[in-house]
Amino acid sequence: xxxxxxxxxxxxxxxxxxxxxxxxxxxxxxxxxxxxxxxxxxxxxxxxxxxxxxxxxxxxxxxxxxxxxxxxxxxxxxxxxxxxxxxxxxxxxxxxxxxxxxxxxxxxxxxxxxxxxxxxxxxxxxxxxxxxxxxxxxxxxxxxxxxxxxxxxxxxxxxxxxxxxxxxxxxxxxxxxxxxxxxxxxxx
Amino acid sequence: xxxxxxxxxxxxxxxxxxxxxxxxxxxxxxxxxxxxxxxxxxxxxxxxxxxxxxxxxxxxxxxxxxxxxxxxxxxxxxxxxxxxxxxxxxxxxxxxxxxxxxxxxxxxxxxxxxxxxxxxxxxxxxxxxxxxxxxxxxxxxxxxxxxxxxxxxxxxxxxxxxxxxxxxxxxxxxxxxxxxxxxxxxxx
DNA sequence: CAATCAATATACCGAACGGTATAATACCAC
DNA sequence: GTGGTATTATACCGTTCGGTATATTGATTG
Lengths: 188, 188
Known about the structure:
Two copies of one chain form a homodimer.
Chain A: H1 3-18, H2 25-32, H3 36-43, H4 46-68, H5 75-92, H6 94-104, H7 111-134, H8 145-164, H9 172-184
Helix pairs in contact in A: 1-2, 1-4, 1-6, 3-4, 4-5, 4-7, 5-6, 5-9, 7-8
Chain A binds a DNA duplex through helix 3.
């Protein structure tokens, strides 16, 4: 692997494990087996490195979500496709998803969070659109699209977090269970 | 206010705003209007300061949750009391709750997360117990207490996060709506 | 072959990091 | 008033921080 991708990978590992602020560029470059000026040659700054990590790993995820959230009149089907997209991506890039999760409830005032904020906002908007469109078929959802989008994404993130920490499988059984729970509650 | 509490308050503000690793003790002591040795006199280390922040702010919250999650055969009532406890505490200590939220999906390998982990684990256990006991009255919940506890807490945190970012009120209307959603789904 | 340019290394910058040795203050009991 | 104790300030420690000036390499290109 060339040095640039090696740096990207090591930066992701370290950021996901200990957080952006707690990791120094020195440690990243050492882990990647290069020197600091090499890192700065490719990414310009520590912030630029984080931006490149987002760019590199998030693009396929964003496309997958966008594709899954195309709504054609069947809300349960669309939610299932979205959940599949989330679960599949989390399993393909678990370390990156762990990095993402760290920003979910952290709209703080750091260099890093600003970048993660728009990444999360894009996803939110895509899923919010689903609930807005679904009002045509389910009028009683009206006016609550934001709450539904937030709680649905929260539910998926809860599942993925459980899986990342070894408390659950991330399989079709779990997906169908939480989809049912979201749509029909815990009692039925 | 005496210096010790002043330091605690400033540390909370800064940690919640920019994260534990991104804030230096220098900045904390300056904000609090004291010098660094004063801070170290009271708390011994930066970690000790964070531990003291948790201790100071979390004790009343933990007691409130513990009290609300006493189960006596009425699950909807118990969930409502728990949600009330969460919402009330978040409104009383919004800055501390923002700090807490930052750790929810971040079981990383840093000094700070270790401390937050057990704090969150205690809450989780208390609420998990509710669902374990509720099996007596709702047999179909059996075997899913962990998932229910995680998703219920996740739902409450989603609401509080929405409120902290100005996207929603944190009132009785929202509480009843999400409690209904959790128990009966989005369609009914 | 010479010129160029991307890529990498050596060595360094000032500033901020977490933490401390020491001494001066202030209060309290005797 | 005198001895002890808790609290605070001055000044400093070695280390790491993000970032860079400069030189060297190696391949491409005219």
